[in-house]
Amino acid sequence: MQSDWGPSNDFGTQVRSRLVLSSLAVDGYEVVGDQAADEKEVTIAVMGATGSGKSTFINLVSCSDLSINDGLKSCTSEVEFSRAFGLAGKTVRLIDTPGFDDTTRSDTEVLKMIAVALSQMWVVHVVKQPDADRFCKYMQRISDFRMTGISRRNFHLFRKICGEDTLKNVVIVTNMWSEVNAERGLAREDELASDSMFFKPALDKGAKMMRHDNTYHSAVTIMLQLIPNTPTPLLLQAELIEQEKDIAQTAAGTELARDIEEQRQKYVEELSELQQEMQDAFRERDHETAEELEHAQEETKAKVLMIEQQQQGFKGTFASMAAVAAPFVAAAAAAGVTMLLRHNVHQMRSHSPPP
């Protein structure tokens, strides 16, 4: 396992106040201003649970001003792009995404939003920058004393979006170390890295796990772990663009649909139990209990209806992102650019080193 700490002094305040990154040596690399970076763009998708620090990390390293929240209520209800910045001779842009436990949107809406952003990114890169690099980063609070079912589900869906072959281009970032003592933090880190229920399978496939101590130096060190890697298309991008799948047919979509159906079945069973208990209460003339159960039954019915609406909306065609790609295809044709998406995918795969 790889862990990296930045120095005790925080470069972030000094650099952020200038809005444009000045030259700064970090581990032998040069962090340069936007004008000095070359034309090859590196795009990094930042994912993780709500409140895991995604927006804060992006703001720190890119001098952006994305909305942040100290609580668990999501401030990232849309996919957002950071300002472009120069790092190690390349132009870098980060993508901030809502978590699958978002407080303002359903999981199906979140997946569709991520799919649209990744597909747009794919087409733009094919047209304008065929050799542009794409990587992923996953944020995890080390201060969480246990990996909840929601956290495991978030990471599992993240893996379905990336695909197994892309995990070598993934960095799992643990943060919020200041909220735990060193002994507990190290024990938690070891558990996350060694338990097959958590991050071990991804680490075995080539993902890296690093610490972030909320300093600018720490954030840049993490970024520099990703930039030299050989780019590989994300599985979700390949499924939507190359294989022309509907969003519900992708690995992430199939997994999410399964999770949603399991949740629906759970509520249906709960509804049946409440119905039986309410009948028993009426039979025993316990009207107070019957009234409480009736209220609980109405709440559960509302949950079932909400899930069924999610399922229905998820079945709507995504037409392999044709509508999203259309304006970029037109622009490419006008510029005399031949866009061979399938060829591009296979070419990138053929040049990717074995895992």
Q: What report would you give on this structure?
A:
By secondary structure, the protein is α/β, with parallel strands linked by helices. Helix content is 48%, strand content 13%. It is built from twelve helices and nine strands. Strand 7, helix 4 and strand 8 form a beta-alpha-beta unit. Helix 3 packs across helix 8 and helix 3 packs parallel to helix 11. The radius of gyration is 23 Å and the shape is globular.
Q: Give the helix level as a range of percent.
A: 40-55%
Shape call: globular
Task: Write the H/E string, N to C.
Answer: HEEEHEEEHEHEHHEHHHHHH
Q: How would you classify the quaternary structure?
A: single chain
CATH topology of the largest domain: Rossmann fold
Keywords: Coiled coil, Membrane, Transmembrane, Transmembrane helix
Pfam families: MMR_HSR1
Transmembrane segments: 318-341
Domain G: 43-131
SSE layout and pairings?
Blueprint: H1 12-16, E1 24-26, E2 29-31, E3 41-48, H2 54-62, E4 80-81, E5 85-87, E6 90-96, H3 107-128, E7 133-141, H4 149-162, E8 170-175, H5 182-194, H6 200-204, E9 208-211, H7 216-226, H8 235-242, H9 251-283, H10 287-314, H11 322-334, H12 341-350
Parallel strand pairs: 3-6, 3-7, 7-8, 8-9
Antiparallel strand pairs: 1-2, 4-6, 5-6
Helix pairs in contact: 3-8, 3-11, 4-9, 9-10
Can you give keywords for this protein?
coiled coil, GTP binding, 7-stranded mixed beta sheet, alpha/beta, 9 strands, transmembrane helix, 2 domains, G domain-containing protein, GIMA/IAN/Toc
